[in-house]
TrEMBL record:
Entries under Pfam families matching the protein: DUF2254
Residue spans crossing the bilayer: 20-40, 64-90, 111-132, 144-164
Organism of this sequence: Aequorivita vitellina
Source lineage: Bacteria, Pseudomonadati, Bacteroidota, Flavobacteriia, Flavobacteriales
Keyword hit for Membrane: yes
Name of the featured protein: DUF2254 domain-containing protein
Keywords from the UniProt entry: Membrane, Transmembrane, Transmembrane helix
Amino acid sequence: MKKLFIRIFDFFNTVESKIAFYPTLLAITGFLIAVIMMFAEQHGISREIMDVFPLLMVEDGDTALSVLSACLGGLISLMVFSFSMVMLLLSQASSNYSPRLLPGLISDKRHQFILGIYLATILYNIFTLFSIEPSEDKYTLPGFSVLLGIVLTIICLVAFIYFIHNISQSIQINNILDGIFVSAKKRLERLIKSEEGQTKTFPDTSNWHAYPAGRSGYFQNLSINNILQICEAEKTKIYLTIPKGLFVLKNATFLKSEKPLDDKVVQSIISNISFARGELIEDNYTLAFKQITEIAVKAMSPGINDPGTAINAVDYLTDLFALRMQKQDNGIIVHDEKANLRVAVVTFKELLFNVMASLRTYCKHDPIMVAKLLWMMKYLQSQLAAEDSYQLIINEEIKTLLEQAKNSFDTETDVSAIEKMYEA
């Protein structure tokens, strides 16, 4: 049952990130409302409302057809324009910042809900038009259905105004960076909280029995309780060699066991692990470091030439690295005082190197960016939660950055300024 639940949960997370998910649900809702209103009209709901509020009802069939036809045509044009704005946003974000940003922008629920409201209202008005006859008098005309269609059209106009405001905010790089940062921060905080009080050690796995995954894809999620139950039943410990969020190759070693396992047990373990064809920050916080780094690198390219954006990106990276220093690098999962499962993690050293390698390559010639990166390193060194090993890693990166920067600067003034800043 738990296995089925986690698969349904992963499937929902994957589908929810698609741009057509909520529009499809709301469009079906609009169709159902139209069917319900047809049923209500057959039971005389318009006649009863007309006796109480006659001014709210349309009393002529031709007028009702004209009003709904005008609303329908306007809404279709509005929806086409809105979709064009979304595509423009995605195109600009991909060309100016990073293609990795597209999944996060596509999964913006506000855009999906607005497009869904358009579709729901269009479908409602179409099926309401079917129920109107020009020759009908005011007592047989579905006046309440027509009134509801007009109200829904007005709601669409209000939603369009909000859509224009939201799309203008979404394209701003500060808001994009902040959205990435908030998602990664929430994920990191959950991981840090789950590691509280875990001081168990894990044996060396170099001589353990290795097994491939048998499938390829991004390691998205796993059912920890089910795998731990298998460990208890087989009297073994298990080590997953690929960090969560990274790509798993079909025939590469993915699973190691302290004791040999038969094929059925291996398949049972693999069945409790979900694989996907894309990456989400909610499942893999390291993707946030990649995205922010790519934004900074793209901003420093000659085609963009936007060092201000790169500086903002370094600010967000600094905060995320400081939070990451509070997380352990062992990946051991403790349950009932037993450490039977370990999942490989992207270590702090690997994460810092991957970020700094890209930034050094594209920013080493700019004294301002070098100074900003030094400031980031100095801030990370000052964190009280930093372990000694983290301090050594940061020192190595500082030395490498200074060495490359000195070889890239054109003037001695820049070199001396960076040396003074480092000494200070």
